[in-house]
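DM from R.C. (forwarded with permission)

"hey, sorry to bug you on a friday — could you get me a structure for this? deadline for the figure draft is monday and I only need the backbone to look sensible"
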Amino acid sequence: MSSDAVVAITGQADADPGERPRNRRQEETFRKVLTAGVEMLRESSYADLTVRAVAARAKVAPATAYTYFSSKNHLIAEVYLDLMKQVPYFTDVNEPMPQRVEQALRAMALTVSDEPEVAAACTTALLTGTDPTVRKVRDRIGAEIHRRIRSAVGPDADPRVVSALEMTFFGALVNAGSGAFTYHQIADRLSYVVALILGEDR
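My reply, with the result:
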């Protein structure tokens, strides 16, 4: 989730680059391996995870797993992307815009808050190395985050405000991933940072 990813997605929020459509059977296999990966992360750690072990857990051939995931970092990045896609959009016009933005950032920040092994693995996978496959997934994660922030801000969102909120959120994730703060502490801190960026009194 580098700063260049933030810049890259600002102008193409509605695209989901790099995601090739899968047929029903392919999607079922993809999901099976992804689910096995999450289960293994919850039980062990990043260091113990391998694509082969996940394939065995999913009861598919290693070659099949490698068809969808080029490395364990790629698999873990896809896990995080899948979790991020499950975060709801906050677009209720009856709520003040700052409240919608705060809810969106909090929901995204707390995605892996109660799963320390998954959180640690996602941080390592997304911030380690220069694997082009992981980089593509990271950009798609950025696009998902961008869409939720922009939707919460509203249709007339100032791109500068959206960009500032994105950079704040990415920085917060790095802080949480490094262990400097818990995800719950980060979610609380995001609340007053949102107020500062949007010029709201707290």
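R.C.: lifesaver. The mean pLDDT is 87.
me: no worries. The two ends are 29 Å apart (CA to CA).
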